[in-house]
Amino acid sequence: MAISYNGDISVVLETQHRTPGNLRAFVQATLRSIKTGKASDVRFSSTEKIEVIPMMTRKLDFSYKDGDDFVFSDPETYETTTLTPDIMGEAKSYLVENGSVTVTFVDEKAVSVELPSSVTLTVSDAPEGIRGDSSNNVQKPAVLETGISVQVPLFIKTGEKIKVDTRTGKYMERA
Q1: What does 9-73 look like in DSSP terms, one character per residue?
Q2: pTM (2 decimals)?
Q3: What pLDDT shows up at residue 129?
Q4: Average pLDDT taken over every residue of the chain
């Protein structure tokens, strides 16, 4: 959700409703300002009015990396959108060409990127498993095409495609 707070539009990252002992209830929220990108903790009392700002989500395809920035295109209109690394967050580790993401916009400005639950990536470097090292579920580190390292089973070789869970960063299965 996005709200108007102190004359600025902020995205609500996390909320927690609290009722301490004999005091009035309040909501503790973590907000990230769209203008500055800084996060802050704010308390709202139960009587405060908050103006909710409409958010819009669009599916975009990753096109290419331009320096540090990431360029996406809308598959329907072919319009391009450039996102900075701080908006991308951990998503940049799982991006491959033509990979789809869901981008949330507030006032035509991108505020967050959501990946699909799993992505298919190619193993670019996987050391050979050691012969006889096959006792229960032994794993080895493998470097993927995006540069991240994931623990995979011994039978995975360089050049294979695997599915990786984007929420945990763990190997799921061969693709």
Answers
A1: EEEEEEEEEE--TTSPPEEEEEEEETTT--EEEEEEETT---EEEP-EEEEEEEEEEETTEEEEE
A2: 0.63
A3: 67
A4: 80
What residue ranges define each of the domains in the chain, with the CATH number in brackets? 2-53 (2.30.30.30), 56-114 (2.40.50.140), 118-174 (2.40.50.140)
State the CB neighbour count (10 A cutoff) for residue 152.
21
Contact assessment for residue 129 and residue 155, using Cβ atoms and an 8 Å cutoff? yes
- Token look-up 């769209």 returns 34
Centre a 10 Å sphere on the Cβ of residue 110 and count the other Cβ atoms it contains: 19
Residues 6+ apart with CB under 8 A from 37: 86
Give residue for tokens 């103006």.
51
